[in-house]
Specification:
177 residues; alpha+beta; Adenine-n6-DNA-methyltransferase TaqI, Chain A, domain 2; two-stranded antiparallel ribbon
């Protein structure tokens, strides 16, 4: 199924009363004020920002590197972004994993990327014609649950690794005093 058959481009403006969100690669959207990196913006222009709903997908300025991001909550984002809203019933986590996968970025999205280095952009006509899988909802759900389980295990393993590194550093400091 083509991306254009599964998603619609959305450009809802005039919601300047909503929270301004920013993209954090690998995380999705976060309130701009809560993100450590300070990004300045003209607060008088937020009426031109695009509204996103939870689970909308966002094609952002660095999507050619890290894939598409997902809106974690309702809010507004830069007018430079392309918002994709599902036309069909989908499991958002399934498509989030797919759109961020190395395979999608290097094999599918790459054909829509134009330019070199920092001058890269995505040709939207080509993008909308990219064919993506559309497995049955139950299959999407099972795959998403499996990926979520793996993410949980990875986070636990990373926490254990961080603790072991701290213990090692502590021992190293005591050994060489």
């Amino acid at each position: 199924m083509k991306i254009s058959e599964l998603f619609s481009p959305i450009s809802e403006k005039g919601y300047d009363n909503l929270t301004v969100l920013t993209i954090v690669q690998g995380v999705g959207t976060q309130p701009r004020e809560s993100v450590e990196r300070r990004i300045s913006y003209d607060k008088s222009n937020t009426n031109t920002y695009k509204r996103v709903l939870e689970n909308d997908f966002i094609l952002h300025l660095r999507s050619f590197e890290g894939g598409l991001e997902i809106a974690n909550s309702e809010g507004i984002v830069s007018p430079a972004y392309t918002i994709l809203r599902a036309k069909e019933q989908i499991i958002p986590l399934f498509y989030y994993a797919y759109f961020r996968s190395y395979w999608f970025i290097s094999n599918k999205l790459r054909i829509a990327v134009e330019g070199i280095r920092d001058g890269k952009s995505i040709n939207m006509e080509t993008f909308w014609n990219i064919v993506v899988p559309y497995p049955p909802i139950e299959e999407q759900k099972h795959i998403a649950e499996y990926l979520l389980c793996l993410d949980t295990k990875l986070k636990k393993a990373e926490a254990i690794l961080d603790r072991l590194k701290a213990i090692k550093n502590g021992f190293s400091q005591q050994l060489f005093i």
